[in-house]
Design goal:
The chain is 6% helix and 42% strand. The protein is mainly beta and 770 residues long. The chain has 2 domains: 3-461, Methylamine Dehydrogenase, Chain H (7 Propeller), CATH 2.130.10; 485-767, 5 Propeller (Tachylectin-2, Chain A), CATH 2.115.10. A hairpin with a 7-residue loop joins strand 26 and strand 27 (414-420). Residues 1-28 form the signal peptide.
């Protein structure tokens, strides 16, 4: 790599580190010269808080959350299980489940909590009781936080969505959405179109005195008494002003509520004391370029969307004038970012443009499966002040992260850092009194190890643990764009460049690309990408699970097939062009299913004789149970021979043990052995060594090579305080003797998407501990 490119990478890394720690932010506000950043302290899977006797695999989620006045008891809604849950946050590093309250105890087993808030000693639970879309109904249950008994209940007159409490605790504002039926068509329209009666409205609750039995509701109609459109809504150009469908509410210190009408692409301001509509304005459209819009397996940031309605979901007041909206989209739009509006004029004061989408790419959280829809889908936004600095938190529903911005100047937000979340972050809950942020995630599928959780972050000094790897920005056409990356399932040292590494993308992306990594930067930086091509020079997509950079130039790839016969070794030249394909022997290929080649390495002796070693992930069906093969391919002779490696065993249903990587370390072969489990269930993420055989294997039964445990990586994976990743898949020793490992994020499919890049220490520390 030229010196100039190395300088660029290190510069990017330095900027990233500065940005992520928020260096200088507090000093700029006269507080302290120490850098501040949010760091993850714990991830609590809410299935662990289920009622006794319930199947752990039963779906249970965390959507919207609230917190007690002392910041120690978190309450979350679980719409799937029709209940609310309680967590003890006294220790932010060890949240503790406090049990749940089923809505079947308060009403009907089909009642669904949609939002929750806290006022003093009371929990306000917003409940959808609608028997159908055309007969919406709901109630507000007031629960004692101490006894968990219902104190009172108020009829809301429709199907509720979100709730907000005024700063002075005098009012609650509830969006009564009366949502549309996506399978119903209005006259002259298509399924899911508007309008669909009955119209939604805003419900104000006067929190009079300290006794909830005195609380009263005041509806604010968003249509005329006869169902006609309000003139202000028509003037604002709302899509279907007779069917406003309010979505989200936020209240400023002047007791003005901002109400998003997501499907109508509108925002309405209402004065809470009087119930008077102050203003209605259109969220407008945006044209965004430099994003990925084609679901083709390639992270191609040259696409664009034109004149798309923002369709904001969540809204949050920044101060008493400016509003922040998360522009998720729902019906006709979604602009893949967030905006700041001037509430006095209804004009956009700032818009994220393509920057939010590009954060996902930079941090390896790009969801290729969503690019033709709404991309990152920024759904949630929250605003709070910590240590004298006002922050905005914007959550990406589809890329599983929360972006943090300094919004001390509302019309000029400054990006500070990305916080990794579990799948589908829904509720963003700042707890500034304790310097905490809680994020609740709603996706839950036990069959693939994706579980809903509450993740806790704390603001403090020092460098946050995430990210461990990012990508640099390079020119792409007329634009500068981050290098797209993900699914890093392999690592190799770079010959002649002692501090650099290579990785390669697998079948999650096409075409395949070889990525150059500078692991000495903090975080590590992907500095370059080389596209792999076939023998004819055409870009090609291999399911490359292993890579080895040859000292004599070029690369070996271990390519896994969808069937046994699809497994092969592929030799590339230094330009990434395919020069040789080595098939598996038929008798081996026929005994494999879809788990085949997972790693490749090689040796070249003093005479120039090259021997390639490859690891199969699972057993060949004709081999003994629990014994997997290590293949030795003599390049000059064109012959294979095989050794055996005995795997650990597992008794967990649905689990299996296999190999994920192989690399030469002196006179040994080092392999990664792992289970298929993630999160709190993960058990085996280890590096073992076997002696490197000097000659080909003798004919006959597999000779099993005795293994020695070199390093247990599980503690390092758990130390992230996040969801323990399943796929520890890449490992190598760099030219300077340092050992690195990386997890495959599966391109966010049935995975959180977080990549953990680990520096395990020197080769002597990892492999010669005795």
């Amino acid at each position: 790599m030229p010196a100039k490119k190395i300088y660029t990478a290190l510069t990017v890394a330095a900027v990233a580190a500065s940005t992520l720690t928020g260096a200088g932010t507090a000093a700029a506000h006269g507080k302290s010269d120490r850098p501040l950043s949010f760091d993850r302290t714990a991830t609590y899977p809410v299935f662990q808080n289920r009622p006794a006797g319930e199947d752990p695999a039963t779906p249970t989620v965390a959507e919207i959350s609230a917190v007690s006045d002392d910041g120690r008891t978190l309450i979350y809604t679980d719409a799937l299980a029709r209940r609310i849950g309680f967590l003890d946050l006294t220790r932010p590093d060890k949240p503790r489940g406090l049990g749940t309250l089923s809505l079947s105890q308060l009403g009907d087993a089909e009642d669904e909590p949609t939002s929750v808030a806290v006022v003093g000693q009371y929990v306000l639970v917003v409940v959808n009781t609608s028997p159908s879309f055309t007969a919406p109904s709901g109630r507000l249950d007031v629960i004692s936080l101490r006894t968990r008994q219902r104190v009172t209940s108020l009829d809301l007159g429709g199907q509720p969505d979100s709730i907000a409490i005024s700063k002075d605790k005098r009012y609650a504002a509830i969006a009564i959405e009366n949502e549309r039926d996506e399978d119903a068509a209005p006259p002259g329209g298509e399924d899911g179109d508007l309008p669909q009666a009955p119209a939604g409205f805003l419900q104000i609750v006067d929190l009079t005195g300290g006794n909830p039995s005195h609380w009263r509701t005041r509806p604010v109609a968003l249509t005329g008494a006869d169902g006609s459109a309000l003139p202000a809504f028509v003037a604002a150009g709302f899509a279907a002003p007779t069917d406003p469908e309010p979505e989200y509410v936020s209240i400023n210190r002047n007791n003005e509520v901002a109400l998003t009408l997501q499907e109508n692409n509108g925002i309405v301001l209402v004065d809470l004391p009087s119930g008077r509509i102050i203003r209605a304005f259109n969220a407008g459209t945006a044209s965004i370029s430099g994003i990925d819009t084609v679901e083709d397996g390639a992270i191609d940031l040259t696409g664009s969307i034109k004149d798309v309605p923002r369709e904001p979901d969540a809204v949050a007041w920044i101060d008493d004038r400016y509003l922040a909206t998360a522009n998720e989209g729902d019906w006709r739009g979604g602009t893949r970012g967030w905006s700041v509006f001037d509430s006095r004029t209804g004009r956009v004061a700032w818009d994220a443009g393509n920057s939010f989408e590009r954060l996902a790419v930079t941090y390896g959280l790009h969801n290729e499966d969503r690019v033709e829809k709404k991309g990152t889908e920024p759904e949630g936004v929250a605003v709070a002040e910590y240590d004298g600095v006002r922050y905005a938190f914007v959550g990406s529903e589809r890329s599983n992260f929360v972006a943090v911005y300094d919004i001390s100047r509302p019309a000029n937000p400054v990006f500070k850092q990305v916080l990794p979340a579990t799948n589908g972050p829904e509720g963003l809950l700042p707890i500034p009194g304790r310097n905490l942020l809680a994020v609740s995630s709603e996706e839950d599928d036990a069959s693939v190890g994706v579980r809903a959780s509450v993740t806790v972050y704390e603001l403090g000094k020092g460098k946050p643990a995430f990210p461990t790897i990012v990508s640099a920005t390079q020119r792409s056409g007329v634009d500068k764009a981050p290098i797209g990356w993900g699914a890093l399932g392999a690592l190799s040292a770079v010959p002649g460049r002692s501090h650099l590494l290579y990785s390669v993308t697998d079948a999650a992306y096409s075409p395949s690309r070889i990525l150059t990594i500078d692991p000495t930067a903090e975080p590590a930086v992907i500095t370059a990408a080389l596209t792999v091509s076939d023998a004819g020079g055409n870009a090609v997509g291999y399911d490359a699970e292993g890579i080895f950079a040859r000292p004599q130039g070029g690369f070996w790839l271990a390519v896994e097939g969808t069937t046994g016969a699809g497994n092969k070794l592929v030799r590339l030249d230094r330009d990434g062009v395919t020069k040789q394909v080595v098939e598996l022997p038929a008798e081996v290929a026929s005994g494999l299913a879809k788990q085949g080649f997972e790693g490749v390495t090689a040796t070249t002796d003093s005479r120039g004789r090259e021997v390639v070693w490859a690891a199969l992930q699972r057993e060949v069906s004709t081999d003994p149970a629990g014994v997997v093969r290590l293949g030795r391919y003599d390049v000059a002779a064109g012959t294979w021979s095989w050794f055996g490696y005995r795997l650990a065993s597992t008794t967990t249903a649905g689990d299996w043990i296999g190999l994920s990587e192989i690399t030469v370390v002196g006179d040994k072969l080092a392999v990664i052995e792992r289970d298929k489990l993630n999160g709190p269930a993960a058990r085996i993420k280890r590096i073992y060594t076997v002696d490197l055989p000097r000659t080909a294997a003798a004919p006959g039964p597999l000779r099993v090579l005795p293994k020695t445990l070199a390093y247990d990586v599980l503690p390092e994976l758990r130390a992230t305080n996040g969801w323990t990743q399943e796929k520890l898949e890449g490992m190598t020793v760099a030219g300077d003797g340092q050992v690195y490992a990386v997890t495959d994020n599966d391109a966010l499919q049935d995975a959180t998407g977080e990549t953990v890049f680990l520096h395990l220490g020197s080769s002597k520390r990892v492999f010669d501990q005795r």
